Structures are given as structure tokens and as C-alpha cells.
């Protein structure tokens, strides 16, 4: 049986676009993203967030910086009962 899945890009879909986002203080969710994800989840979709973080390879921030922001973001989704 196929698994219904929706892939969401992080920057510009989940959060407002910020060049080389790597600080929680700079993270701002797109209006309505939680409602949208809850809707798809209620329809049985698995939600996957994808992202390309070239700031790591360019030396603007570390993978650890990225992981901290990502874990914080995932916690915000969990607080809204959204499984990512």
C-alpha cells in the first residue's frame, strides 16, 4: 500500500526566508504552516521536511548550529501535535 507523503522545503515554506538561517531568534514560521500540516496529517499524510543548507559548506555556520535550529523547529511542530 502506498504511503501518502508530502515533502515541504524548510526555507520559504516552513519558515520565512532568511539568508543562511542558523539562529533560533531569526526563525519565523510562515503563517498557517501548523494548520496546513495538521490538515494533511489528518488526511493520513506523512510529512517530511527537506532542506539544502549551503551555509554549512560555505563556513557561515556549523552543522551543530543547524542541528540546534532543526531540533527547536521539530519541537515546535511536536507542541502542535504534528509528527514530522
UniProtKB/TrEMBL annotation:
InterPro entries (UniProt xref): HAD-like_sf (IPR036412), HAD-SF_hydro_IIIA (IPR006549), HAD_sf (IPR023214), Heptose_bisP_phosphatase (IPR004446), PNK3P (IPR013954)
GO process annotations (BP): carbohydrate metabolic process
UniProt-listed Pfam families: PNK3P (PF08645)
GO MF terms, alphabetically ordered: phosphatase activity
SUPFAM superfamilies assigned to the protein according to its UniProt record, in alphabetical order: HAD-like
Signal peptide annotation: none
Protein name according to UniProt: D,D-heptose 1,7-bisphosphate phosphatase
Organism in which the protein naturally occurs: marine metagenome
